[in-house]
Amino acid sequence: MAARGKRAEIEIPTTVRNLPSPAFDELTGVLPRLVEISLTTLFPHPKNPRRDLGDLTELADSIRSSGIRQPLTVVPILDTDDEPSGHYQTVIGHRRAAAAKLAGLNSVPAIVDETLTPAQQLELMLVENVQRADLSPIEEADGYQGLLDLGLDVDAIARETGRSESTVRRRLRLGSLPEKAREKLHTGQATLAQADRLSDFEDDPELVEQLAKVLGSADFENELAKATKKVMIARAVARVVDALQAAGATPIPLREHGEYQGYAPDGMVQVGYISRWELQQGSQSQKVANWLEHYLSDVDATCVFRTFHNTYDDNVYLFRPRSEPSAGDQPATPAVDPEWERQQAERRAAVAAQAERHERFTGLRRAFVDGLKARSITTQQVAILAGFVARRDLMWVWTSFDTYGVDKKLLAWLGIEPFGNATSDDEDDAVVAAAIAALDTGHALLALAVLGEEDGLCSDNYPTARVGAYYELLQQLGYAPCSEEVDALTERPADEADEADVDDEGFYDAADDVDDDEGDED
Length: 522
Description:
The chain is of the alpha/beta class. The protein has a 5-stranded mixed beta sheet with strand order 1-5-3-4-2. It is extended, with a radius of gyration of 35 Å. It has 3 domains: 22-176, Alpha-Beta Complex (Conserved hypothetical protein from pyrococcus furiosus pfu- 392566-001, ParB domain); 230-324, no CATH class; 351-512, no CATH class. The chain has 20 helices and 9 strands. Strand 3 and strand 4 (84-92) form a beta hairpin.
């Protein structure tokens, strides 16, 4: 086969004029013109979705040595009388024009297309950058919004840009984000997945603003967990309140700040309440449905209810008039001391706060570990895990066995359903042994490290040497603790006696496991 010859390069003329032919123009429309345009008359398009042209050094060097091989596409700028002003805007080739100026060129070859409508101009700019993956999600979103403003619908935008309708709609939602969040997403400080989560709270602009402040930081997942729970509880409370009001019950406020939320008004008795732990399951949860089904049948216009909200308590209490006492009734319960109420409320809030914090921290750690489980463990991470496991006393992991002698947590880690219909213990052990054998060294070490430590991270043991060592391991593996976790790790333990049985390295010392009161007199 003969070698294919090198294609001859075609010189771009400095000026190409359309032939004056009204009949031809009527049949075909006005043709684009290929011209050489002075860079002093060429300006960036004001609707260009691209904010940042990036580093132009290499492109400028290429243009300086080889020139511009592909002409730009431009449109004329009209003056106030809709007449050509002699200036142009770039539609395709923004980077080439900027690089040409950097390279010292005075002019660039360009196709002047007077037929492009504003919508077509924006569409071309979007397609050029989207197809080259040159746009940030925010630039893309602003471009789509511009097309919407010019009259295109989502279907047309998706069709013309080659994107799916769902992608276009997701990008358009980014337009409603606070500017702080938009800037973080544009500069790569935050991910699209994180930004998408903000749209879950679009009904609460204040909450979105709060989340935008920590978007892309180590605190984001923690604050997101708190916001998610807050919204779920608020919606569940709203459902319960709406149902009670529809049944005729009347809402009443707390009589004073700090009053015990379940304290019955004069002449009434508490008949039931739905707690925060049930409400946080969500407005459509079975727990909320069961509560409403149980109590609504007895609710009428004589009933009242009270909602109580603070950082850690969200409860709805239902009261109805006390029935007339009969001869056999016990005497009325004496009034509760307000100071005692206040102290009890503070104690409950502190306990709830600690439990809620522990629950959040556990979720953050588990999400990180699940990510490690789902991907390959690097050689460096294997070495880190091996060193950690070798220094820890993990024998206590195997002391909690179920009926079949299989650790339930290990089953969960391996993704094995609990046994119930197995024919023999030998079969159980064989299945577990096969699953363990299938683990590579890195994931086996990860399982040992995590299963050996997570149960030790109780809500009341921050900080201990063992907790600190485990967090250090997680950080070495890539975990970024939120600021609340960092603060918790430096708190003074609620009961320093908890650390009496732990040595300086965080190991449990069985020799100290004696009754602290042994030998004391009653």
